[in-house]
Design goal:
This protein is mostly helical. It contains 20 helices and no strands. It is globular, with a radius of gyration of 23 Å.
Length: 319
């Protein structure tokens, strides 16, 4: 059977099977067709191939495609796809630090700043992940991520983000009981116990101490103040500063629950915040999505899949 006698669906299957076969066998392949012939009316096939493979496997597919047709797969995908489907597919083709750096750059460049994106990423990544993001951002943009963040933010919100970008959180698991009690007292005296709020004290404790220690601090804070630390942050702060401190605390307590809540809030109400939905689904796919799905079900009594499908066809019709 010659290529020119195949219908479009058969061409897609043949093309994809050749790419996947080459990846699996580590063979060189030749191909006569551009991606325009391959992906026209073939979103389902793209999903089948990309969504069911790991990031590492998708990188091999990118390499095989470039070898076979002499073009970058992502560039061709961008030229042929549109809307949310394009954003998801392009995101899936990026390694984690590249995707995070890409999202951060988009959050900063142009008119206005997407503070929610900065918070979602910078408040939730580990020291090692942060260092990779910073290096990747520099490589991809020839700019310092810290400089760009400082150029687009200000005040105490900026200082919290800069602190997070140092990737300097204590990585030990040690809990200093005396220090935990003192930290809880310091936060209480910096907020609930005084007129006005000393945000620097919150920064010093929440951005520096290790997770186990901070969980103990939160317990002590509850004893001292009679409030959960999250409630006090809501009472004492507002705007982006409130949002970033809440994100830090929630990620320390239960990161999958934090992302489950972000997904829920991105879909509830009259409209869908597609950028948040896409960013979390792509970024967490191979990290903790199973845990996020479990937390979502526990928190909202519905599966994440069913919640996305109801009223959000702009996102789910292709993914």
């Amino acid at each position: 059977m010659q290529f020119n006698t195949l219908n479009k669906s058969e061409l897609v299957i043949l093309k994809v099977s050749k790419i996947v076969h080459a990846v699996q066998k580590n063979e060189a392949i030749s191909c006569r067709f551009t991606i325009k012939h391959v992906i026209k009316h073939t979103n389902a096939t793209i999903i089948e191939i990309l969504a069911h493979r790991t990031i590492a496997q998708r990188q091999k597919i990118k390499e095989a495609y470039k070898q076979s047709v002499g073009k970058e797969l992502v560039d061709n995908l961008k030229s042929e796809l549109t809307g949310n489907f394009e954003k998801v597919v392009v995101g899936l083709m990026m390694p984690a630090p590249v995707y995070d750096a890409y999202e951060l750059r988009n959050a900063i460049k142009g008119a206005g700043t997407d503070e929610a994106c900065l918070i979602d990423i910078l408040a939730s990544r580990s020291n090692a992940e942060m260092k990779e993001i910073i290096a990747t951002y520099k490589k991809e943009n020839d700019k310092s991520l810290e400089d760009d963040v400082c150029g687009d933010t200000s005040g105490m919100f900026q200082r919290v983000l800069v602190s997070l970008l140092t990737a300097g959180r204590d990585q030990s698991t040690k809990v200093d009981e005396a220090q935990a009690v003192q930290d809880a007292k310091d936060i209480y005296e910096a907020g609930e116990a005084r007129w006005g709020t000393d945000e620097v004290k919150f920064l010093t404790v929440l951005c520096v101490r290790n997770r186990n220690h901070l969980l103990r601090v939160f317990q002590e804070y509850q004893k001292i103040s009679g409030r959960d630390i999250e409630d006090s942050i809501k009472r004492e702060m507002s705007g982006c500063l409130e949002d970033v401190f809440l994100a830090i605390v929630k990620c320390l307590k239960n990161k999958p629950a934090f992302f489950a809540e972000r997904l829920y809030k991105s879909m509830k109400g009259l409209g869908t915040t597609d950028s948040v939905l896409i960013r979390i689904m792509v970024a967490r796919a191979e990290i903790d999505m199973l845990d996020i799905k479990a937390e979502f079900l526990k928190m909202y009594g519905k599966t994440l899949e069913s919640f996305i499908k109801v009223g959000h066809s702009c996102f789910t019709e292709n993914m």
